[in-house]
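Q: Here's a chain of 185 amino acids. Please give me its 3D structure as tokens.
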Amino acid sequence: MEIRLIGESTVLRQVILDDALFISELRSDPKVYEFLSSSTPISLIQQKKWLENHSNSKDGYYFIIVNSSSLKSVGTISIYNFNEGKREAEFGRYISVNSVNAIEAEYLLLDFCFNVMQLESVYCRTADKNVKVWRQHLSFGFRDVGFEEFADKNLLLRRQAITRSEFFNFDYSRIIMLLNRFKNK
């Protein structure tokens, strides 16, 4: 069963093998991969192989962020590394070239995590140098919970988390107002 999450100006649709070219091009941008675990561009063959392995693993949901006005793919977002005992998962693989769609994609994914999946908590690990993204997470109610070293790349990761109760008690009115202002752009 395919899952689609639909917002005002954003649709999250599950990744398919045909998205490999878009994802490899997105991940091969030096401005993007400086914040990722990979330090080099990703080839189309590597991306296809990763997507094939991912589809067989059933580890989470990997979405393409689509601008609903232009119908163009503008990024990726995912929830994975489920811990059934703790009812938690990791939010990541988050890349977007459109700020409005990035904001709505984060809201749609969190809503899916807490309202549909019934998770108790969601965490993310963001390169500390990726200030724009970790600040955006804070604006969604995430809180800083520590740092960890990504040894393979000598990269400091900022760990942030949000619980189910924090999500439901957070005031998203400013974010929703912003999204409504830029609806269908």
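Q: Can you summarize the key feature?
A: The chain has a mean pLDDT of 89.
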